[in-house]
Amino acid sequence: MTPGPLLAALADWAAREPARAAFIDRGVPVAFGALDRRVATAAAWLGGQGVRAGDMVGITLREDMAHIVAALALLLLGCDQVTLASHDPPAMRLALARRLGVAVLLAADDADALPGLPLLRFAPQDAAAPPPVPPGRIGRVVLASSGTTGQPKLIPLAEADLAAQMARRAGEGRVFFRSIPVEHNNAKKYHLGLLALGATTVLANCAALPDLAEACARWGIDRVTLPPERAAALADLQARPGAHPWPSGTSIAVFGAAATPALRRRVMDAVTPNLVVNYSTTEIGTATIAWPADHARHPDGVGRPIDGVHLRIVDEAGRDLPPGGTGLVRVRAPGMAQGYLDDPEAQARAFHDGWFQPGDRGRIEADGTLVFVGRDAEMMMLGTINIFPAEIERAAQGFPGVADCAAFAMRSASLGDIPALAVVETAPGAVDVAALAASCRARLGLRAPRRVVVVPALPRTVTGKVQRDRLAALTEGG
After folding, report:
1. 310 and 366 inside one domain
2. Residue 348 and residue 195: Cα distance in Å, rounded?
């Protein structure tokens, strides 16, 4: 079978410029030639351990480079894969593994084992050659994203999809840095896709605040991508006397929660005028970019569609709205996901005749700029993490002393939506708030509420719907 675009690009660069860096890992370059050999060795070793094309393989590997090698080796073998992230509670990982029918778990440590799931310690050793991939078998990367039903949406992307999503970013530079580790879907998709561009990726373990400016100068980084809260922290650091000068050739991209006008001004004043803001989803990739000249014209805009991306704004019935009308955003682009696994309800909500509806509300200005208005329904976004009230409420329901509960967002200019939980007690003092918060963290990990408050009653409409905005207002300053 002809290699997919990521593996073909890796092989091509390994042949043409074997010494050029594909990644910088802990300050050490990993050349394209060396990476190509490591991936082939890992695929051969995995095949020797019984991993076969068509297997669904779970990955719990904290080390970015090991995770990338494993992911590429599984694609070479024609396997499907899903990250069972170490930062998620074991119960969450196990539920996801069972739902997808994971056949084996790749991990670095026996402590990451899950009940009833074979564990293979990822320690590739030299072997003759990778076993052949049966014709027609193309491996997929399954990305798990939060869902309205309280269980993750499962987004399958083929190798060609990852390459097509990143192809829209060609021309933005040759050396990239993203501040989150590969166990997060956003970073994994980004790092794999950059291989198709022949780019060099500086891994998250190489650079961090407060030394990010120095690292950018050392590695010649063209584009740094940060979530809003880290962009704000960077602006504070760079504004201090004696800070290392920010390299003039390094631009900053802010992703995730909407970048406020105030944040944009802070970054452009204190760090660099070369600031871009991205609007993206896991299913589509980057859809729009607001360039430096756009921020003054549209302080709340997230830019115009990039090459190959088409946008529409529709009403609840799916009818196109006139220019300037606020409604639901729909997007279409090469490499987009075509649906979800095992969730026909979520798929019916999000996918419409070749268009993806991410659940956001916005409007399109006369010059084509998309203005992000807010998230539809009740979804929260903490940085780059999508969180729905249902999953928090499900984790809290049944906890001793909880008579009723509702999740809501506390708004933060830098973090986006900070999840919180309001609970009604069965009797005064019946709920151990600290224990409830700990229980939620054990079940939800990063999606757990950061604050739990006791209220006498949940504010509801006459039809019984919880008024979450009132909950946020009632708890301000509390």
Report:
1. yes
2. 33
